[in-house]
Amino acid sequence: MVKDIKIVSNKVFWIFGNERITIDIEDAFFVSERKEIQLIEIEAGKNFIRNRVFYFNFAGEPVLYYDLELGIVEWSFQGNTKKITVKNVKQVGFFPQEQRIFIICSCGKQELLGYDIEGKYLFKVNNPSEFEMLYFAKLRDNIMVVCDGNKNQEDQYGRFRYNFFMDIDTGKLTKGGLAY
Q: What number is the average pLDDT over the span 16-39?
């Protein structure tokens, strides 16, 4: 179990077992334990604007890193480092149990890219019609893309944010219910 996670002067600390783990990351401003994937997530960027995200295992070993400005996504798999570069990255979804990495990017129009954990390209899907992809979420065993709709998608209460269930092999998006 992880205890006492905190950031002090670009150093991120936590206790795992009886060991104090220390990671030095410039401009780190947010850290959290991602219990569902058993990783530590650290966000960094100047003026508290997220442009780099790091995932470490509880023992402090790097698992995944992405840089939104440079479009770099880098991770470790079976002792090998994998790296891809994608222009105009908006969001990266890392799902180690499913062995998938998903990227929302915007090159003229918005696209969703899917890769397996070995770095193999799986698919590219465009925005659902009248929606803009925002971020990834997981509900039970389903991976979803949360999307904002346009005025045509508003319900009677003015809500327009919806979950789209994603087929992790093909990228097919199926509209679900409202996202909160």
A: 93
What is the rounded distance in angstroms from the CA atom of residue 79 to the CA atom of residue 7?
A: 28
Taking the C-alpha atoms of residue 96 and residue 36, their distance in angstroms, rounded to an integer, is 10
**Torsion on CA atoms 124, 125, 127, 129, rounded to nearest 10:** 150
Assigned token pair, 162: 């919806």
If pLDDT is split at 50, 70 and 90, which confidence band does 139 have? confident
**Two tokens, residue 47:** 């003026």
Q: What is the 3-state secondary structure (H, E, C) of the chain?
A: CEEEEEEECCEEEEEECCEEEEEECCCEEEEEEECCCCEEEEEECHHHCCCEEEEECCCCCEEEEEECCCCEEEEEECCEEEEEECCCEEEEEEEHHHCEEEEEEEECEEEEEEEECCCCEEEEEECCCCEEEEEEEEECCEEEEEEEECHHHCCCCCCCEEEEEECCCCCCEEEEEECC
Say which residue the tokens 């209460």 belong to: 157
Locus of tokens 């508003």: 154
Q: What is the pLDDT of residues 90-133, one digit of tens each?
A: 999 999 899 999 999 987 688 999 999 999 999 999 999 999 99
Chain-centre distance for alpha carbon 157: 29
Q: Rounded mean pLDDT of 36-40? A: 89
